Automatic annotation (TrEMBL):
Stored SUPFAM superfamilies: DNA-glycosylase
Cofactor needs: [4Fe-4S] cluster
Name of the protein described by the UniProt record: Endonuclease III-like protein 1
Keywords: DNA damage, DNA repair, Endonuclease, Glycosidase, Hydrolase, Iron, Iron-sulfur, Lyase, Metal-binding, Nuclease
Length: 174
């Protein structure tokens, strides 16, 4: 549910689904319209609701309602990409399998000159080639998310408010 959405929207939609259907079996029993209504504030609500239903069906049938324990199996589920799979591996199984790179991490790393990449996936691969694994998880790159939402924004970054403006090759200062 998280891709292309702010955290508060994701949390609100997730909480609504859990309130309506706290188990996988109950998610499958929900009317498609009800599941989509829970996702209504998210981007691509219909697609996300469909992916949730399809992934839940696979989880029940193939994994007994639990989550698989490998990146390959997780990314094989509808709607689960590398970023979501890496997050699930870390939270559910305590395994850090990939650097958590979102649009904010991608943008900031490029602006700082740490990478020169065109996609989040390429940024992830580049970071993994030199960034210590201990920084791949939530505690490592999570500060970039809020920083990217508030200071180093995509449009009109607030460079004058930035703590690293003197070291940033992309800083736009008066």
């Amino acid at each position: 549910m998280a891709p292309q959405n702010r955290d508060n929207i994701t949390f609100e939609a997730t909480a609504d689904i859990i309130k309506k259907a706290p188990t996988a079996e109950e998610v499958l029993a929900l009317a498609p319209e009800s599941l989509e209504a829970s996702c209504k504030k998210t981007r691509f609500a219909a697609r996300k609701a469909k992916a949730i239903r399809e992934a839940t069906k696979i989880l029940v049938e193939k994994y007994g309602g639990d989550l698989p324990q490998t990146m390959k199996e997780l990314t094989g589920l509808p709607g689960i990409g590398t970023k979501s799979a890496a997050f699930l591996m870390m939270v559910c199984w305590g395994k850090v399998e990939a650097a958590k790179v979102d649009v904010h991490v991608h943008r900031i790393c490029n602006r700082l000159g740490w990478v020169s990449t065109t996609t989040e996936e390429k940024t992830r691969l580049e970071l993994e080639s030199w960034l210590p694994r201990s920084h791949w998880g939530v505690d490592g790159l999570k500060q970039f998310v809020g920083f990217g939402q508030e200071i180093c924004t995509a449009q009109k970054p607030k460079c004058s408010d930035c703590a690293v403006k003197e070291r940033c090759p992309s800083a736009k200062l008066p």
